[in-house]
Amino acid sequence: MCGIAGFSDYDGNLLDEKYLWMALVRRMARRLSHRGPDDQGAHVSAHSALAHRRLAVIDPQNGHQPMTTVRDGKECTVVYNGELYNAAELRVDLESRGFTFYTDCDTEVVLNAYLCYGEECPEKLNGIFAFAVDDCAKERTFLCRDRFGVKPLFYTFQNDRLAFSSEIKGLFEYPGVNPVLGRDGLCEIFGLGPARTPGCGVFQGIYELKPGYMAFFDREGFRDQQYFDLTAMPHMEDYESTVTTLRELLMDTVERQMVSDVPLCTFLSGGLDSSVVTAIAARLLKEQGKSLSTYSFEFQGNEEFFTPSSFQPDRDQAWAEKVSELLGTYHTTLLCSNDQLADSLFEGVIAKDLPGMADIDGSLLHFCRQVKKNHVVALCGECADEIFGGYPWFHRREMFDGTHFPWSNNLDVRQSLLKPELAEQLKIENYVNLRLQEALDSVPVLSGESAEQRRMREISYLNMKWFMSTLLDRKDRCSMASGLEVRVPYCDHRIAQYVFNIPWDFKCPGGIPKGLLRDAAKGLLPQEILQRKKSPYPKTHNPGYEQILKQRLSFILRDGLQPIHKILSEEVVQGLLNQNFDYGKPWFGQLMAGPQMLAYLIQINYWMLHYNIYLDI
């Protein structure tokens, strides 16, 4: 895992002022130093400048980037952020085609795969990745991002140049790229946030290479091209065969993702998803005579203040300890205090360059920092709910049949936060409906499907292409802020594509949410673990945290110089401060309830202040 940055210009020759451009691209990469604390490098050719910050995971002694090879007298250079899980197989195929390898790192596999397979290269890769290639022979820059966007890649244009970076903050180092927020950006923040439209960088003129896309930049300009999307096809296996196939895919995926030359652990909540990943990993390590380290997360005061709800039926700690004992792992429970959680709101904004899932982001950032003290790589259970249909909106009729995104089914509170005249200008509901319709129009369907089957396919597609992207974005930025690589086995594209076409009565047999996954994991864990009801990522229930938020937001309201006054209805926000919130009624996802609305507003204000954002509305 790493950070990459660069820019390309096919109208001039960068070598004429090589050291100037070298200094600039290094400055862009320096903003990404948290992603790669182990090594750094930069490269300038006639038309591209590339820079890299490395977090060494495979072959730490080698693999320096940018990595260059010469073929037919022409240089080809790559900067790469990610991990390949089929590097060994690709290496064998490439060697059979005449390619020679000088390192054990997967960067060299990516570079040679590009040279060998060309534009078909992305389809050959199984992994999480974002990379850029300076192809001198073809005089073009090639960008690519993994199928579900586990690894980020943003870009912009400045005076006919393409500039790109793993994180938006790297782009702001490029001259002329400024933090400007227009109407669409405000609609993203208040209508969709903390989700984002795929491809949207929120700031004016800043874009994100969409998951499953590659792009080309040369004298003809910029063009992107999709190389992967979920496809609809008939599911031909019976239930027992489906269970067997899924189990084989799970075992293979976890084993592939355990490849590492540095210490590895898992996140273990004691829920179904993380327990299955941990059980497979623990079994594989035990065969090597090793034991697995595991981590769970908890908040100060939850033992006293936790209140069960339909979204969060019980606490994780006892379950995590039970699974750890069963599997023989070295388990650590990490704790986050009220003050640490409140302070993490600001760190979360800097990590993402955008407001995010408030304390849900910040707490993960805090926990990842603690994990990084002993480990460099972690496996987690993220993405299972999107893929297997575990969320309430897969099962509750009023959410299933809603006319908004199912995880954000009511825009009234969001719109009310804005000054009335601004809300009238933005027409947030129209913007959100347009984005939703665009997403629905892209859903692949089979002819002859019933309305119910089609709707279920739509919900699955929206979750994998939108909600899952939000959580993957959160996972990358909050973990890489500390140089911790977190892998997501359930997000393997083979699993996602396979499960996408499995009938709902197989995914949810007998009405049991994720029953298919539970059956595929039989024998790995006892039934009481496999049948545990879903409980999402933990959050604090301590009323002391809510009081800290109210105090901080009150201070912002009293200070007329705070930037959020330009957009907020102070009367409405003051009303929020006088409420006692129901923690069981989220406005986004399962976790973001009343306190998280206050935290989100605090984040927006800090974001506008820290980035000195100019409003263009």
Overview of the molecule:
The protein is α/β, with parallel strands linked by helices. The chain has three domains: 2-226, Glutamine Phosphoribosylpyrophosphate, subunit 1, domain 1 (4-Layer Sandwich), CATH 3.60.20.10; 239-407 and 418-530, 3-Layer(aba) Sandwich (Rossmann fold), CATH 3.40.50; 543-616, no CATH class. The chain is built from 25 helices and 19 strands. The strands form four sheets. It has a six-stranded antiparallel beta sheet with strand order 2-3-1-9-8-11. A six-stranded antiparallel beta sheet has the order 4-5-6-7-12-13, with helices on one face. The radius of gyration is 24 Å and the shape is globular.
Biggest sheet, spatial arrangement of strands:
2-3-1-9-8-11
Whole-Å distance between the termini? 38 Å
User: How many strand segments?
Assistant: 19
How many domains comprise the coordinates? Answer: 3
Task: Give the structural class.
Answer: alpha/beta
Mean pLDDT rating: 94
